[in-house]
Design goal:
mainly alpha; Arc Repressor Mutant, subunit A; 2 strands; about 70% helix; globular
């Protein structure tokens, strides 16, 4: 598994469960802090709406199912967000040459302006933050979170979780 330094990390035979649970708790707390901050500085553009807009800005036009797989969240949840962005005039739907029924969602010029304004506000806000970490430490933290996320979204882990869920369901009904 590559690390931020380019070398290959050894896979731990036993993952450090208490430390992972602590990391997850801190990550969830950070997520909620970021949601509250987004609401404060972006007003009606919630963290979910922001996420859809930034995803479109970074990856270009996508279908609702594609966006849902990237999160991962339900297609229905993304559809609700896209519908709100359509009402606001920040996205538009267009024909998808790859699929007749699943249309592409694309930023409008107003949506592109909204993303640029959100980025400016976030940069100004972060300049005010008193975070006692340097660029290398932040990059290492981001790389660590990326590796954990990739492992948890991987096919092997997903299959193991599904199997565990089936066993637990069977045990509840036994």
């Amino acid at each position: 598994m590559p690390s931020s330094g380019g070398e290959t990390r050894k896979r731990a035979s036993n993952p450090p469960v208490p430390e992972l649970l602590s990391l997850f708790g801190d990550t969830i707390a950070l997520f909620h802090c970021l949601q509250a901050t987004a609401a404060s500085i972006h007003g009606e553009l919630s963290a979910g709406l922001r996420g859809v807009l930034f995803g479109l800005a970074q990856r270009g036009p996508q279908t609702v199912p594609q966006m849902a797989r990237m999160r991962p969240t339900s297609r229905q949840h993304i559809q609700v967000l896209v519908n709100r962005l359509l009402e606001m005039g920040l996205v538009r739907l267009e024909e998808n040459p790859e699929h007749r029924r699943s249309r592409l969602v694309r930023l409008t010029s107003e949506g592109e302006r909204a993303v640029a304004l959100m980025q400016e506000r976030e940069e100004r806000m972060l300049e005010l933050a008193d975070i006692p970490l340097g660029a290398a430490e932040i990059a290492a933290a981001a790389a660590t979170l990326g590796e954990v996320r990739a492992a948890l979204m991987g096919t092997r882990f997903r299959r193991a979780v599904e199997e565990l869920g089936r066993r637990e369901e069977g045990a509840r009904h036994a």
